[in-house]
Predict the 3D structure of the following.
Amino acid sequence: MISHAFTVTESPSKVFAAINDVRAWWSGEIDGPTDELGGQFEYRYQDFHRSVQKITELQPGKKIVWHVVDAQLKFVDNQTEWNGTDIVFEIGKKDGKTEVRFTHGLAPACQCYRDCNDAWGFYVKESLRSLITTGKGKPNSEE
């Protein structure tokens, strides 16, 4: 399982709003709602990655879960490695700060595990964190 975490001084509600503003911190094209329970959005990055996430849990200031309904990763042999996985953001308090805990249910045996771990690390700990703390994400810094 891929896992990343960080803390910020901003409120859980501000963190929640930033996570839901996916276009501000995740590069590529995003179609569909990213902040509605039961909503689905499609993510596309060039011809490299396409995935559809369904928002299955949305607890304001606490938790967001995206279930990967369908995915095609062109850079691995099993292009559907993401299918059926959950992408989870948990928001809580730690030492007087707001903690963001991110997990993506990919097994280390998945071919994309290392690359996906590195990419998620950037998008969560750099781009999302920047959006929360400065109001501006870094969605295209990896391009």
